[in-house]
Design goal:
Elements: E1 2-8, E2 11-17, H1 21-51, H2 55-61, H3 65-68, E3 70-82, E4 87-98, E5 104-108, E6 114-120, E7 123-124, E8 126-130, E9 133-137, E10 147-156, E11 169-174, E12 180-185, E13 207-215, E14 219-221, E15 225-231, E16 236-243, E17 255-257, E18 259-268, E19 271-280, H4 284-290, H5 293-305, E20 315-319, E21 324-325, E22 331-333, H6 357-364, E23 372-374, H7 381-398, H8 401-410, H9 437-448, H10 453-466, E24 470-472, H11 474-485, H12 490-498, E25 504-509, E26 513-519, E27 529-533, E28 536-540, E29 547-550, E30 558-561, E31 567-571
Parallel strand pairs: 1-30, 3-13, 19-20, 20-22, 23-24, 25-31
Antiparallel strand pairs: 1-2, 3-4, 4-10, 5-9, 6-7, 6-10, 8-9, 11-12, 12-17, 13-16, 14-17, 15-16, 18-19, 21-22, 25-26, 26-29, 27-28, 27-30
Helix pairs in contact: 5-6, 5-7, 5-10, 6-7, 7-8, 7-9, 10-11
């Protein structure tokens, strides 16, 4: 029987590990049985997963020849909302640069919406429909380097979201005063749920104009800066919002309601940042108090990640009737104007109630999702893992590292390890939801391997500088982290991103030494582990073979560091 301490910086918690040969032998037998059944289950699930991808999945998820020949440069989206009929109609001007000649151009619009007409240089174009993919047959020569545009007209009753933001579509609500409240959500299901576009993440417009027509007594809040409000004859107003930076299509949003506005200016790393807040009329005073979290968020994230990426477009926080979403420069908020996540602490440590989860998390996506965007939804971990870890970094900045450590360890209870974090490329399939909590712990583990937090901060700010306003894939991020840390992280990422296996450090401890090895690992996984012997920091270098660390003195106190995302299993000393 040995006493092992659980190390979280300067606080120690003793846990008792008691093992016997009888238990260990039976445990190994049971483990083999469980592994056998698990293998059969995974084999069945894998076979099922192969069959689940459809022709439409491939059209949506791959960079087809009909997409690759043109580079998207600009959108002008115009939408008229008919609240009584729950319908929309409008157009989208798509401007593009010809990369190589082709006569067919691919866009998407999901049913029940339909494209009614497509015009290029006053000529109506024909098109072929395949599911919700439209192949447009072009009449003009598409000369390399030429800048072209076409105008797509559409209409219909869009899909209604059943559970925003986790299901896509429009949400039609009433506020407490009986005013209409209409908002959009589309991450995962696709922006083509409510407007025609090149519905793939790899290509973003360099800028965008969003024109939303709403009833006179309501406002529309969308992305970017409000360029103008035009009074129409039919008791409506058109709100023109201009986005001067590249924007991912799922980040485009429309929020129509009885909004009131207040604002402030944040003095940030690139000068004055306009912060504009739009909330329902009855919630103004609550918002003025709760949104004081915004400057605190900006201060912490500009420290860790570098300048806010969209000074030109400003920062907005917009109240919506769902939890929240990372719409670029138009972050949406529905967190009851209270700390935690909808009044709960997802970490179970108490520290999750020290900040407004939605303001912190969804705004963190301005750096990881909106500034740095995945090329393929299979690599969504780039968005969610870094942003989930931003919650811990917020606590680290405003409180202390030990508290941040407690928080990130606390969210481990939410990890399922059901499947790998990386999904299947080219079929629009994301990986496990573990990209949030496990992803955060992966990055926290990587941080432990660095010499100091100065390097960690340089890496995070470097990512946002070197991949500024770019779409990226997993390999680019992996290679960048390997280069900047000076470590070959191939096996590290293979283990944590491409399998659902958690490394297990088996150890045998007695008065004179500790023997240790890794099991449940991929080939080449040999991540060092920090321990504390008589409260002195030491490093173990495990691999898949037994290794020994001899104590300088007998009866040494061994403390395990639980900042590493591994499982520890004490074995009996024979």
């Amino acid at each position: 029987m040995y006493t092992i301490k659980h190390y979280t910086n300067n606080s120690f918690k003793s846990i008792l590990i008691k093992t016997t040969r009888h238990f260990y032998c039976n445990f190994n037998f049971m483990k083999k049985i469980v592994l056998l059944f698990t293998f059969c289950f995974l084999l069945s699930a894998f076979n099922g997963a192969i069959a689940q991808f459809s022709h439409q999945d491939t059209l949506r998820g791959s960079i087809t020849p009909e997409r690759s020949w043109w580079d998207l440069t600009y959108y002008h989206l115009s939408v008229n909302v008919d609240i009584a009929k729950k319908s929309i109609s409008g157009s989208n001007i798509i401007q593009y640069k010809v990369l190589h000649p082709h006569n067919t151009l691919q866009i998407e619009l999901q049913e029940p919406l339909k494209i009614t007409k497509i015009i290029q240089n006053n000529n109506e174009l024909s098109f072929k429909k395949d599911g919700y993919t439209y192949f447009i047959i072009l009449q003009e020569e598409q000369d390399v380097g030429a800048i072209k545009h076409l105008k797509v007209y559409y209409e219909g009753i869009p899909q209604e979201s059943e559970n925003p933001p986790w299901s896509g579509g429009l949400t039609w609500k009433k506020d407490n005063n009986g005013n209409d409240w209409i908002v959009t959500t589309c991450q995962g299901d696709g922006a083509s749920l409510w407007w025609p576009n090149k519905d793939h993440a790899y290509d973003e417009p360099d800028s965008m104009l969003i024109s939303i027509t709403a009833p006179n007594h309501l406002m529309d809040i969308s992305n970017g800066r409000l360029r103008s409000v035009v009074q129409n004859k039919e008791q409506t107003k058109t709100f023109n919002w201009f986005v001067s930076n590249p924007i991912n299509n799922y980040g485009v949003n429309m929020n129509i309601g009885d909004y009131v506005h207040f604002n402030e200016v944040y003095k940030g790393l690139k000068g004055s940042l306009d912060c504009d807040y739009y909330v329902l009329r009855d919630n103004l005073e609550k918002a003025k108090k709760q949104f004081k979290e915004v400057p605190r968020m900006l201060e912490a994230f500009e420290y860790w990640f570098g300048p806010y990426p969209f000074y030109e477009d400003g920062y907005k926080l917009v109240e919506v009737p769902y939890a929240g979403m990372e719409h670029q420069s138009s972050v949406t908020y529905g967190n009851y104007f209270e700390n935690g996540y909808r009044k709960k602490d997802i970490s179970g440590t108490g520290w999750g109630m020290k900040f407004d989860f939605i303001i912190v998390h969804e705004s963190g996506h301005e750096w990881f999702a909106n500034n740095i965007t995945h090329k393929d939804v299979a690599d969504m971990w780039i968005h969610e893992s870094f942003t989930s870890y931003s919650e811990s970094l917020f606590l680290d900045y405003h409180f202390e590292t030990e508290i941040a450590n407690m928080y990130v360890q606390g969210i481990r209870k939410n990890i399922l390890n059901d499947k790998p974090i990386i999904g299947t490329n080219n079929v629009h399939q994301e990986g496990s939801g573990d990209m949030y909590y496990k992803g955060s712990n992966i990055l926290h583990t990587l941080r432990q391997l660095l010499e100091n937090d100065t390097l960690w901060r340089e890496i995070l700010t470097g990512l946002n500088k070197d991949f500024y306003h770019q779409t990226v894939d997993t390999k680019q991020i992996e290679n960048y982290l390997s280069e900047k840390t000076g470590k070959d992280l191939t096996a590290f990422f293979n283990q944590y991103l491409r399998t659902n296996k958690v490394p297990v450090l088996e150890y045998i401890l007695n008065d004179e030494f500790i023997q240790f090895r890794y099991v449940n690992i991929v080939e080449g996984f040999d991540m060092p582990i920090r321990v504390f012997i008589d409260e002195k920091e030491e490093w173990l270098f495990p691999n898949n073979e037994w290794n020994t660390y001899n104590f300088e003195e007998k009866d040494a106190n061994l403390s395990l560091d639980f900042n590493f995302y591994v499982e520890y299993e004490g074995l009996p000393d024979d």
